[in-house]
């Protein structure tokens, strides 16, 4: 681990991240690229994991009109004092004070000193239930028979995420290691790797990967079905560049990338196998991206669910009879998963749910489902559909 104090640039970056979060402008975790990654990711993780509890504590120390810069600095400081015991308290206080200007310095200093001296009493109030937004607690609490199991589920979200690589030639998952050979391995979540392989498709001639970029699943489709012609579409220009890099890097000769909006694009062919790895809320990735749970809400889930239905309708219209459609989302919310499948099955009498052909280690028998307490990887839902005449 890098030594404290953290270089000023990175401390400021964390502060800016929190600031954009409180302003409602944060879009994604941009902490992948720093040489100080290990250290500041640790602070970033503890801050977002415990954001609910930290806000609850801070509310009792603050007046209503506290400037947003102070809230951001106090949030970072409190996370370090309460949850990162290897950072000296004086450093957590001083460095947080340095993040703000003028009168705000004395406010941040006073509040953090009080929090540091009350640390023990504060931590006695801690409960995992504070760490998640209300909408998330409401969605999940009734899925468990008792409070203990529910809390176990929440704690499993806070477990250290495990990172994996895909060994491209063998299609085997390998635990992540530093300085891996980029021509041989591709970083990819362990559950994500299983999705294109959920169903053994017999000699598909034409495959469509509707939302393909950056291309993890395209790599798997290409290696698993080398004789097939694969169309890999994505509407994001930046992400399609990443897909093209992967096509080149792993010599995926049977893949044609297309920059287009899947919902608008006029296809003049049908497909034997379609992978619809649909855009989603990404709420299944909160172990690796703890900010996501704070950036989404019920409205976003319902909005995504509606869009996903449109993707499913269109994908089915492009599927040959007896073709296979795999639908997947990195979300465990029922609106994005099973409800969408039920919608499709009720709407089309000629569409059937098929059991995945790979062994499932899931709670559900008919589809792929990887809730946090049962899996080390991301939370995915995936189902296999077929269409008859
Ligand atoms: C879950 S990600 C796909 C991940 C990818 N399958 C992989 O394994 O690397 C969803 C993708 O859908 C793309 N997308 C969103 N709306 C789209 C649309 N209307 N048409 C095509 N692609 C879209 C996004 O740009 C994003 O790359």
Automatic annotation (TrEMBL):
One of its GO terms (biological process) is regulation of DNA-templated transcription. SUPFAM superfamilies: NusB-like, S-adenosyl-L-methionine-dependent methyltransferases. Keywords: Methyltransferase, RNA-binding, S-adenosyl-L-methionine, Transferase. GO terms for molecular function: RNA binding; RNA methyltransferase activity. The keyword Transferase applies. Residues 111-388 form the SAM-dependent MTase RsmB/NOP-type domain. InterPro entries: MeTrfase_RsmB-F_NOP2_cat, MeTrfase_RsmB-F_NOP2_dom, NusB-like_sf, NusB_RsmB_TIM44, RCMT, SAM-dependent_MTases_sf. Pfam families: Methyltr_RsmB-F, NusB. Gene3D superfamilies: NusB-like (1.10.940.10), Vaccinia Virus protein VP39 (3.40.50.150). PANTHER family: 28S RRNA (CYTOSINE(4447)-C(5))-METHYLTRANSFERASE-RELATED, NOP2 YEAST -RELATED NOL1/NOP2/FMU SUN DOMAIN-CONTAINING. Belongs to the class I-like SAM-binding methyltransferase superfamily. RsmB/NOP family. This is tRNA/rRNA methyltransferase.
